[in-house]
Design brief:
The protein is an alpha+beta fold. It is built from eleven helices and ten strands. The strands form three sheets. It has a five-stranded antiparallel beta sheet with strand order 1-2-3-5-4. The longest helix has 28 residues, at 312-339. It is globular, with a radius of gyration of 21 Å.
């Protein structure tokens, strides 16, 4: 392989028997059940442990995470992500934390035979955090506000207090899920089907290159989670008796329960980005599947700005950045499906639901959408006076 060629990312393909062997050998655990979990580039397993060889604890639940071949070779990157999870958990955020191996390591690079060849994958065992993905729930303004505020609090804590030698690895040059790099995905456009969606994405790319790319220095930069999508934020009702009638399909005649955030998952897309990216990304995914998606943004903005106020330049960019995230999701999904058709259902889940929101935002236009968003956010300021 020449120095200019990038290694091919291979998603893990471990069997359940291999997962059981890793859990026993690396962690001294006796596994009673293994359940595969959905994942984009990695492989995750929910394992139930009947007992540990050391403490004889019963019925513990964990997530065994197997990292793809490319990221597995960047130990500093995975170290930084894992240390960030530990830091946030210690600060009171609902983040998974690693379980040490029997020799005290928080991760282990293992050579594993798969499909008649040996591949190296980084292995981590994380605490299992229960909850319901927010996409499956009927949410009201209280939860949208709470999610915006919590993400801002998380980013602020990382910015002000998180220090570790490995964080330099989070400057991920060319990382295709960093919004600063949207223009690098232009080469994926031909892989999208011809039609209105592709036409909109092409125009969003042009606007990004014209309005965002030259002005990145005007945005406040920091380490961000970068992927608070509909599967990475889990919720539980504050009142457990409110479990019935919570889905988006439920009758609107029932009062909406109040939720708390029970888990912030998957730090695999963590990088140095911008505060406004975190806000745009969360608005993007919170819109998906909502009855009135355009009304979501204002509540999230209000929550976020209660902790991290945006500058005028950041506010002015927000509408376009949401369009950019929808476009980024569509471009990456179309490209990944070409290489992993067997995982198409999971890869395309956000893209298939998100294109309707992209259409709606595009046809409503910046001025109309911003009026709804910022009038809603302003109403919180009026109430607090």
């Amino acid at each position: 392989m020449s120095s200019s060629e990038k290694p091919v990312l291979i998603k893990p393909a471990l069997t359940e028997a291999q997962v059981v062997e890793l859990a026993e050998r690396l962690y001294g655990l006796k596994v009673s059940s293994v359940q595969p979990m959905p994942s984009y580039d990695d492989q995750n397993f929910h394992i139930l442990v009947s007992e540990t060889q050391a403490t004889r604890d019963h019925n513990q639940s964990y997530v065994l995470k197997v990292t793809n071949t490319v990221d597995s070779e960047d130990a500093d990157l995975i170290e930084a992500q894992t240390q960030a999870m530990i830091f946030l958990s210690e600060k009171g955020f609902p983040s998974p934390t690693p379980i040490p191996t029997v020799d005290g390591k928080i991760m282990s690079l293992e050579t594993i035979e798969q499909e008649n060849e040996c591949r190296r994958h980084m292995i981590r065992l994380l605490t299992y955090l229960p909850g319901i993905p927010f996409v499956n729930l009927t949410l009201d303004h209280r939860t949208f506000y709470k999610i915006g505020r919590t993400l801002a609090q998380m980013d602020k804590a990382l910015h002000e207090e998180f220090r570790h030698p490995s964080t330099k690895s989070l400057h991920r040059e060319g990382f295709r899920w960093n919004l600063s790099n949207l223009h690098l995905l232009e080469k994926y456009l031909p892989e999208m089907k011809e039609g209105e969606t592709r036409s909109i994405v092409k125009q969003v790319l042009e606007q990004f290159k014209e309005k965002i790319l030259p002005n990145l220095s005007k945005f406040h930069r920091s380490i961000i989670h970068g992927d608070c999508n509909e599967h990475n934020i889990l919720l539980t009702p504050v009142d457990s008796s409110a479990l019935e009638g919570m889905t988006e399909r439920s009758s609107t005649t029932h009062p909406q329960p109040e939720f708390r955030i029970s888990a912030i998952l998957d730090f695999g897309d963590m990088s140095y980005g911008c505060f406004v990216y975190e806000l745009a990304i969360s608005i993007t995914y919170l819109m998906i599947g909502r009855v009135e998606p355009l009304r979501v943004g204002g509540h999230v903005i209000a929550g976020f700005e209660s902790v991290i106020p945006l500058t005028e330049d950041e506010r002015d960019s927000l509408f376009l950045l949401v369009l950019c995230r929808f476009s980024q999701s569509l471009l990456n999904a179309s490209h990944n499906v070409c290489f992993h058709p067997e995982n198409e259902e999971y890869i395309m889940v956000s893209a298939r639901k998100g294109w309707k929101c992209l259409y709606q935002l595009w046809h409503q236009g910046k001025k109309a959408v911003e009026r709804v968003w910022f009038d809603t956010a302003r109403s919180y300021q009026i109430k607090s006076r």
